[in-house]
């Protein structure tokens, strides 16, 4: 594509397209990067740049770009039956097949799924389902959902309310009633002078305090990401999840593991709860379920919750036009089969994640880096003004955004969350590609340090 047509596309984009999570005025000034195609772990933009996608799109392209199996699945399903709904006693073969496959992969007690079109819809579904479940159990007052500060659970009204991001809450008078937030297990940023496991226990016990404050008869569920993604790849100390599990069990609170990022191999296990050994009652899923090739999500539901619904004698008045969309379901099934049959998740666990961690940990001694943390193929690099003094930059967003831009110039997509640089590459990334990723991160850190230190 020539520069003139690119400029024209950018102009049209600026005139007509309001982008998500974007300062529109600022974008009009800067112009957008037009991504035209992709293959494997690489993106190609309209200016001819080949960029290593260190974010797998938005944490979702787990099997990488350009897989023919998914293209074929979509084509065949569209020819056969592009769309039909799952309302009014109907369903479609790909929807059924995907439901069975998910039940096989999920922890033993999760054998049911409610389909949605996205992670946000999954969390809206979770909220309504958790409250409805307790009403069916004769405990209609169990309504409050406890979530965490700095969590990300989506952008719909329920999703943004469950999310713990103050900037989102400021717009549109959120959160809605009945949602409470406790602290996140962000040791490096918020507990650095404490022993990590002591800190983990302390913040986990905030859940207990909150339940006692509200009364357990008023609390429906606790929701958390196994590893907080959009909040800056916050990996909890080892002590954290077992204590959360204990509290949920003791007070009869549904445990909701938001697996939208951690699901489908990101941690080196099929789900984040498999990694941490927790036993959630509900699991919102999306993103990696289809590697982003088509939009689809869902909520995995425990046998106990599903039985209660079935025995309630009433309808669950909830659903989407695209719940169980056959083409999206066929693509998700093809995606999961590639992940499973090629042993991609096991390879991440045994080979690729250890290599990724070993390489990136070499950056911990860089003058601008305060900490490097990884889990599976998730990584965070904390940028700091003065690591000896544990001093963060005053304007965290400015350094993170600049570092992100430098990174793209250096041929790598990293994302800045405040001054935390995060990565989540496709699970099919090779060791050679990790070497290249490492070189580009290093160059980016050098360039950023030259400007900010
Ligand atoms: C992305 C994300 C969501 C929202 O998913 P959408 O498909 O963007 O609506 C929810 N939870 C987590 C943990 C996510 O990362």
UniProtKB/TrEMBL annotation:
Gene3D superfamilies from the UniProt entry: Aspartate Aminotransferase, domain 1, Type I PLP-dependent aspartate aminotransferase-like (Major domain)
Q: Which PANTHER family match?
A: AMINOTRANSFERASE, AMINOTRANSFERASE CLASS-III
Any Pfam family matching the protein: Aminotran_3
Q: Which family does it belong to?
A: Belongs to the class-III pyridoxal-phosphate-dependent aminotransferase family.
Q: Which domain of life is it from?
A: Bacteria
Protein's organism: Sessilibacter corallicola
Tell me the protein's name: Aspartate aminotransferase family protein
As cofactor, the record names:
pyridoxal 5'-phosphate
- The transmembrane residues are none
GO terms for MF: transaminase activity
**Do you know which InterPro entries this protein is assigned to?**
Aminotrans_3 (IPR005814), Aminotrans_3_PPA_site (IPR049704), PyrdxlP-dep_Trfase (IPR015424), PyrdxlP-dep_Trfase_major (IPR015421), PyrdxlP-dep_Trfase_small (IPR015422)
Protein's UniProt keywords contain Transferase: yes
What keywords tag this UniProt record?
Aminotransferase, Pyridoxal phosphate, Transferase
The record's section on SUPFAM superfamilies has: PLP-dependent transferases
